[in-house]
């Protein structure tokens, strides 16, 4: 299983196996990185321009799934961050509290760490992240738990989420200012 620099497991054997698409890939199969950040890698941008900015992994836009000559790991600017605000392991949804500094239920979990080809430089090759609830995150890093395990949310996680929902419902309920700020007079 893939490991962090500290030696803890990340919950997958191959981080690229959980990738759906690159964050820079447009709906038309074009590479947004080569257009928006051309100054960061002029040679890459020039090559993509020659190919009409077509993503070398995605392939032709009329084909389903990645069908180009490259794999996600081959692209020097690949990035995949999960934007769904639920735990990929147990499905727990985030319940944020406005104007409160409570710890979030979900945490960003990195699936890719230093590449062995960087010879111990500690350099991360690609950013591949998903969201895990705090409870699943701890289980993945402290044991052999995998992110693709089919599990239910931890009872503690459900209790925390429901407590937040209850507080939100109380805030949404109507209470007249006279009752709310009754000074006892």
Structure description:
The protein has 185 residues and is of the alpha+beta class. It has two domains: 1-21 and 78-173, no CATH class; 23-76, no CATH class. Helices cover 24% and strands 8% of the residues. The chain is built from five helices and three strands. It has helices at 32-36, 42-50, 134-142, 155-172, 177-180; strands at residues 79-81, 106-110, 127-133. A three-stranded mixed beta sheet has the order 1-3-2. It is extended, with a radius of gyration of 22 Å.
Short description:
By secondary structure, this protein is an alpha+beta fold.
Sequence of secondary-structure elements: HHEEEHHH
Topology, number of strands: 3
Content-based structural category: alpha+beta
The oligomeric state of the chains shown is single chain
Q: Number of folding domains? A: 2
Percent range of helical residues: 10-25%
Shape: extended
Query: How far is the first residue's CA from the last residue's CA?
Result: 67 Å
Radius of gyration: 22 Å
Number of separate helices: 5
Strand order of the largest sheet: 1-3-2
Percent in strands: 5-15%
Query: In terms of per-residue confidence, which ranges show pLDDT below 50 for 5 or more consecutive residues?
Result: 116-124
Mean pLDDT: 84
Sheet with the most strands, sense and barrel status: 3 strands, mixed
């Amino acid at each position: 299983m893939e490991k962090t620099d500290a030696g803890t497991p990340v919950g997958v054997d191959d981080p690229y196996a959980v990738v759906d698409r690159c964050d820079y890939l447009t709906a038309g199969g074009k590479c947004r990185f080569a257009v928006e950040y051309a100054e960061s890698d002029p040679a890459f941008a020039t090559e993509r321009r020659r190919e009409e900015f077509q993503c070398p992994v995605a392939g032709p836009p009329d084909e389903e799934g990645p069908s180009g000559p490259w794999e996600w790991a081959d692209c020097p600017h690949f990035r995949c961050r999960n934007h769904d605000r639920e735990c990929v392991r147990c499905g727990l949804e985030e319940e944020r509290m406005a104007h409160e500094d409570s710890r979030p239920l979900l945490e960003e979990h990195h699936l890719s760490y230093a590449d062995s080809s960087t010879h111990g430089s500690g350099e991360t090759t690609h950013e591949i992240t998903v969201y895990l609830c705090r409870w699943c995150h701890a289980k993945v890093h402290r044991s052999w738990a995998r992110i693709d395990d089919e599990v239910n949310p931890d009872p503690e996680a459900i209790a925390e989420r429901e407590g937040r929902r209850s507080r939100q419902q109380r805030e949404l309920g109507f209470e007249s200012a006279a009752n709310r700020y009754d000074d006892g007079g």
